[in-house]
Amino acid sequence: MAHERGAVVVRELERSEIDAILTRNHVGRIGYARQNKVDIRPVHYVYEDDWIYGRTSYGSKHEELAETAHEWWPVVFEVDEVEDLLRWRSVLVHGGFYVIRPDDSPDERAAWERALELLRTLMPDALGPGDPVPARTVLFRIAVQEVSGREAAPA
User: Fold this and answer.
1) DSSP structure class, residue 133
2) Helical segments of the chain, H only
């Protein structure tokens, strides 16, 4: 449904458009709450089959997530495409943040290996000798459970 606001039309994105935005972008923001604090942090990522994959490190800006997400942690994830002040697209994902622990089970090991393979499409030396961010050894994924998206454009 489109809503006209002066000379700008804002409309809801279809799921296929949301998936396309998540697929073609590789920098987003994770938002999460812990106790009485809400935080949002940028992260690079890869999207595949309703999962957002990324990596972080213990002692990093995502330390609270990485150290406490033994099962899952509820998060929001946002990606924006901004052409100018009145022409933009924004996607918001609600889901669960999971640290991928390769020693927990064969399924987890397979998920960890797939995550690394996907992340190496962005950074070929990830977790290798030429890794530009070698401290980021914690792989994670976010289950895409609910999505919404909007687009603004001049009428």
Assistant:
1) S
2) 15-24, 63-68, 106-119
Furthest CA-CA distance within the chain = 56
Residues 6+ apart with CB under 8 A from 62: 30, 41, 43, 56, 138, 140
pTM attached to this predicted model = 0.87
Delineate the domains of the chain, giving CATH numbers in brackets: 2-154 (2.30.110.10)
- What would the pLDDT profile of 17-54 be if each residue is shown by its tens digit? 999 999 999 999 999 887 788 889 999 999 999 999 99
d(CA 32, CA 20): 24
**CA gap 91, 142 in Å, rounded:** 14
Identify which of 59, 31, 47, 22 has the alpha carbon closest to the alpha carbon of residue 115.
47
